[in-house]
């Protein structure tokens, strides 16, 4: 299955590199988005087709669920496939026209035949993400650590460049949109105030690094430590939070909604949204100790 997925990632990386020349930028005009989904870009639709077909071509999945679709797709094969897949085909596409890094996120479960796409995250057996940036990286975990592969465009193959990745126990970087500071709850404001001023548990002054592309912000956090977060009920448990929390834990980090371990939260529906905090274990523990860190409410932002 992972061989098939990497083929889809290679194809998508090539299309992204040519998007401006091949008229692939801009909003998809094929119809209105579902209330559950964000406005689709042209490349969202193309990426969804590519990654979905990669899973189908693997002949290993009996059901797939995509962030770009409203329902699970059941795959009929001549035999019973052993796995189910969930994926966000193109994370960060809102900013794609500006050339900002984007990504693909996916998670794999054993097929249960019951409520595909709605298994609790702790049942996940493998997860990964692709980062499309100055280089294309594929970061994978199949339950025994995390390994990073970089696409060698000269030979068209992924090369192991980051074996046995481990997130630092504590970092010195926080990654979230602090332009929303005055909309945050008091606990999150105090936490950010403290770590910015060197008044947190580490007594170090933290720096802010924020791309507004979840895969890119998480990848940097995985390498350097710290915390990557969105305190609003915005990110999707099934397609984003669970796979990235699985990878974070496999690398020695944590994934939390500010109160609970992400992988213990049962999805209420395919597009279940929630706050997400990913990062170094000591940073996540310190954040949770402040108590009120979830931005609850329905306030909408246009940028």
UniProtKB/TrEMBL annotation:
Keywords: Carbohydrate metabolism, Hydrolase. Its EC number is 3.1.3.11. GO terms for molecular function: fructose 1,6-bisphosphate 1-phosphatase activity. InterPro entries: FBPase_C_dom, FBPase_class-1, FBPase_N, FBPtase. This is fructose-bisphosphatase. It catalyses: beta-D-fructose 1,6-bisphosphate + H2O = beta-D-fructose 6-phosphate + phosphate. Residues 167-290 form the Fructose-1-6-bisphosphatase class 1 C-terminal domain. GO terms for cellular component: cytosol. GO terms for biological process: fructose 1,6-bisphosphate metabolic process; fructose 6-phosphate metabolic process; fructose metabolic process; gluconeogenesis; sucrose biosynthetic process. Residues 2-163 form the Fructose-1-6-bisphosphatase class I N-terminal domain.
């Amino acid at each position: 299955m992972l061989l098939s997925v990497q083929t889809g990632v290679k194809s998508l990386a090539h299309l992204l590199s040519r998007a401006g020349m091949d008229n692939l930028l801009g909003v998809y005009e094929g119809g209105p988005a579902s209330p559950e989904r964000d406005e689709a870009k042209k490349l969202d639709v193309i990426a969804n087709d590519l990654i979905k077909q990669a899973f189908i071509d693997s002949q290993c999945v009996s059901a797939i669920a995509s962030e770009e679709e409203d329902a699970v797709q059941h795959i009929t094969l001549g035999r019973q496939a052993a796995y189910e897949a969930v994926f966000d085909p193109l994370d960060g596409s809102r900013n794609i026209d500006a050339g900002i890094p984007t990504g693909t996120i996916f998670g794999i479960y054993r097929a249960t035949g019951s409520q595909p796409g709605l298994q609790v995250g702790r049942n996940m057996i493998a997860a990964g993400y692709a980062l499309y940036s100055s280089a294309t990286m594929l970061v994978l975990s199949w339950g025994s650590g995390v390994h990073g592969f970089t696409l060698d465009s000269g030979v068209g193959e992924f090369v192991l460049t980051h074996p046995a990745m481990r997130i630092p126990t504590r970092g010195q970087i926080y990654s979230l949109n602090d332009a929303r500071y005055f909309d945050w709850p008091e606990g999150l404001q105090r936490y950010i105030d403290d770590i910015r001023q060197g008044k947190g548990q580490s007594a170090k002054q933290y720096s802010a690094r924020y791309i507004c592309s979840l895969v890119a912000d998480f990848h940097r956090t995985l390498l350097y430590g710290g915390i990557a977060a969105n305190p609003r009920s915005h990110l999707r448990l099934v397609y984003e939070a669970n796979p990235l929390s699985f990878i974070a834990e496999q690398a020695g980090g944590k994934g939390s909604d500010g109160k609970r371990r992400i992988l213990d939260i049962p999805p209420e529906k395919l597009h279940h949204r929630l706050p997400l905090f990913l990062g170094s274990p000591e940073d996540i523990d310190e954040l949770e100790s402040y108590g009120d860190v979830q931005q609850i409410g329905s306030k909408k932002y246009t940028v």
